[in-house]
Amino acid sequence: MKKSRSDLLSIASGFSALVFGFFIFAVTLSCSSSEVASIEKKPPNILFVFSDDHAYQAISAYGSVINQTPNIDRIAREGMLFQNCLVTNSICAPSREVVITGKHSHMNGVIDNRVEFDNTQTIFPKLLQQAGYETAMIGKWHLKSEPAGFDYWEVLPGQGRYYNPQFRTPDGMVEYTGYTTHIITEKALDWLKEKRDKEKPFMLLYWHKAPHRNWQPGPDYLTLFDDRDIPEPETLFDDYSNRTSAAKTQEMTVAKHLNERDLKFTAPGNLTPEQLSQWNAAYGPKNQQFEEKALSGDDLVRWKYQRYIKDYLRCVQAVDDNLGKVLDYLDEANLSDNTVVIYSSDQGFYLGEHGWFDKRFIYEESLRMPLLIRWPGRIQPGSVDTHLVQNLDFAPTLLEMAGVEVPADFQGRSMMPLLEGQTAPDWRQTAYYHYYEYPGAHSVRRHYGVRTDRYKLAYFYNLDEWEFFDLEKDPNELVSRYDDLEYSGEIQDLKNELNRLRQLYKVPEVDPPSERPVR
After folding, report:
1. Are 360 and 435 in contact, with CB atoms under 8 Å apart?
2. Dist. CA 495–CA 479, nearest whole Å
3. Span 150-174, pLDDT tens digits
4. Which domains does the chain possess?
5. With helix as H, strand as E and coil as C, how does 364-381 read?
6. How far apart are CA 176 and CA 180, in angstroms?
7. Least C-beta-crowded within 10 Å: which of 55, 266, 322, 450?
């Protein structure tokens, strides 16, 4: 039977479609798992690892001279390290609230640790959940109210305990025996392996308590670093001259304010007999040696620093080791190629710098947060970014990663252009900071300020005192140059910029109220 021209064209078209279909099938079969994910445009899984008070100077990828963190370093080696990630308010609950809301403390309502989080707000976990993500929160929440936006959650009440922790769950409180860092990891792995819906992309907040004060190492770490001294920071004996009265009146010095519990002269009260035996075997001989030395003056300060920093680093080591277990699982389960892994901490921390052991001030060790992100196929391995980013930017970044629209009232900005190595000429050149919790723990006065790539201006507004630092010439921030005529132009420019930022972020002239009375 003779075919018409149109029939022949139809047959040819069908044959071409069949060949093209087989070609796509063959290409797909030949692709790696990461390439298949790219072709199908699957939204990435997100593993957000968050620790508490983990200073960047205690991460070897940031050049630590006091410890090694090979698993955190792996994220830097396979992804991007941010050199200038800055917190907006250096204290636990407010930082976490900024992370999940994408808004400054005065906008989200959590200005200090006393305020309860309003969980009816728009937060990125809710938006990811609505977009089809399976969401989970495991570990330290520290926002008082119940976690919202999660298909699964188990969180520590408040700060939680290092040993034998309780966990809040939708079904009530549950208690476990063991070391909290290990238990949080076991729960995270159990959720990844057994409890999530594997047909959906996942977002897991795997948030640690460690290395928050008071530093209690796990059973496997009690004698780590006993065989060596940790190098002292060069400002351990800072006398706070050439700065405002705020630096002189704080209450967080190694010399005066570490107590017996911090220094491990008393064991935690909730240990099992076996745990107590291990604890006493480790700290008993050390305490006896200390008592025999009868130290005083600078020698006593040096001893207290060694006791503090070793316990802190022992807690960090447990976090790093446990992170390694989770990274290994992602590899074994063929999840690594399409999983974004983020490591950060809620703020920086003083590891003896300025003679201190806490955070709160705008000075660098407190202001700078560690931030490392791995995303195979999207982030160039081993890359380093120096832009001024903030925890304010975490929520919009996570949403854009997942292909979810960022709410217009979020005050942060997505870091996606930076992650992909693009030029960002319109990126922020200044970062705003505001600390509120005074009166309060450690007696750090309220202040706000602005930081550029070189300069920093801070205003302790209840004292009406200013500080200005040239970070290029004075990286340790030992001498305020606020009254130096050489810098009068730069100071005025920064005052103008402070006013602009306060208007941009809608900062009220009067501080928002804290929920609970202060002492």
Report:
1. yes
2. 19
3. 999 999 999 999 999 999 999 999 9
4. 41-222+310-429 (3.40.720.10)
5. HHHHEECEEEECCCCCCC
6. 9
7. 266
